# Entry
Amino acid sequence: MSILITLEGGDGSGKSTQSRLLSTALLGRGYNVTSLREPGGTNLGENLREILNDGQRHHAGLTDMSQLYLFLAARAQLVAERISPVLIEPNNVIICDRYIDSTVAYQGYGFGFDINFIKQANSNAIGDFVPNLTILIDCPIETSIARTISRTGKVSRFETKPNDFHQRVRNGFIELANENHDRWKIVDGTLDEKTLSKQILSLALEVIKGSDTNLQ
Ligand code: TMP
# Structure
């Protein structure tokens, strides 16, 4: 058996940094780690990521509905090309920076698309490849917005949304986490990077070691 761990959270929650730190820590302990991100991880996914993040230039007019289907298409491709081939082999760990729950939180809670529809579409896209552990890096939106503003480089389509959008996304993630305490663990995204990475590593190791695998 292999393990799929996903990290979720709002923009500026520190999720991508923590995904990297977790991958490095597990690699350092000798695990076979595959690091992925959504949207991305395949040629199609990386192309769709460019389109989805480009809210200011060529793809400013992309509708909310089109975005929803593009995220799902990127996911279906990621599962087919990168997730299922790894998870059907034994003793692997996949760390995925965002996955099914981002679509429920952003397109469902954020944009108002039907939550059950999204959950069903997610299920169609991923089949049996449900995460063994999902870590929510929860952060007050004031903190996460301040972090995205202080970042240099490109600003994504979603980072420029108003505060109430980000608040709905945050609440959505918390609601999802509370629906399934077996799969989800919530960590405090305001903690310093090192403390948070230790907590996340210990949550990951707990699931890896408690699983029916030869992973030690
Ligand atoms: P990032 O924060 O990992 O770079 O993700 C890119 C943006 O895409 C981020 O603002 C969240 C958004 N997103 C969705 O709206 N729905 C999704 O299903 C995914 C995976 C990401």
